[in-house]
Structure formats: structure tokens, C-alpha cells
Design brief:
It contains no helices and eleven strands. It is mainly β.
Length: 115
């Protein structure tokens, strides 16, 4: 069974870069037709797709966040990483990593943007 685990700082200062890593076990991030995704849920709001990295390494980003977002991968470590630049309090959320089409979720990690 595929398992995903997010890791990274829980507190980021405004204007800095949020960086999270998702470690995948039980499956390879290069598995054909799989997309590895970052999703977030701000307090009191719904789920928001941030972006995805495909099995091929191609990346796809939310238009609303594209200018500040970068998703990369380390195939040797079977990890993929989110970087979100110039964060503000609006970026405070629970961040999840997710795999499609297998529909596996990480447990989520709270990230708070505050000085």
C-alpha cells in the first residue's frame, strides 16, 4: 500500500519561502500515469489544489499560485517537494500531499505564516 508523509517547518515568517517534502513509500513516484500533488486547506475554507508533478517529471500549477510555486522531485529518495515563495498569512493552511489516480493522502501538516 502506498503511503505518503509530509515533512517541513510548521511556522514560516511572512515573505519567506515555505518548503515541504512528501516522502512516498510502497510505490514509486515514476510509476506510469501517476500524478503527485500538493493540496491545502486554509482554516474555515475548502480544499485548494496547488500543483502536481507527473510520473514523467512534468509540472502543473494552479494559475492563482503559479508565480510563487515550484514542485520538484528526487527520484532516488522517492520524494517530491513544494516550494511556495513570498508567503503571507493567506498561505496559512493544512498542507497535504496526494497521489492520483490511486487516491492516497498524507496525514497533512499544519503550516502557519506568522512573524
Amino acid at each position: 500500500q502506498v503511503q505518503l508523509q509530509e515533512s517541513g517547518p510548521g511556522l514560516v515568517k511572512p515573505s519567506q519561502t515555505l518548503s515541504l517534502t512528501c516522502t512516498v513509500s510502497g510505490g514509486s513516484i515514476t510509476t506510469n500515469s501517476y500524478y503527485w500533488t500538493w493540496i491545502r486547506q486554509p482554516p474555515g475554507k475548502g480544499l485548494e489544489w496547488i500543483g502536481s508533478i507527473a510520473y514523467s517529471g512534468n509540472t502543473y500549477y494552479s494559475p492563482a499560485l503559479k508565480s510563487r510555486t515550484s514542485i520538484s522531485r528526487d527520484t532516488a529518495k522517492n520524494q517530491f517537494t513544494l516550494q511556495l515563495n513570498s508567503v503571507t498569512s493567506e498561505d496559512t493552511a493544512v498542507y497535504y500531499c496526494y497521489s492520483w489516480p490511486s487516491d492516497y493522502w498524507g496525514q497533512g501538516t499544519q503550516v502557519t505564516v506568522s512573524s
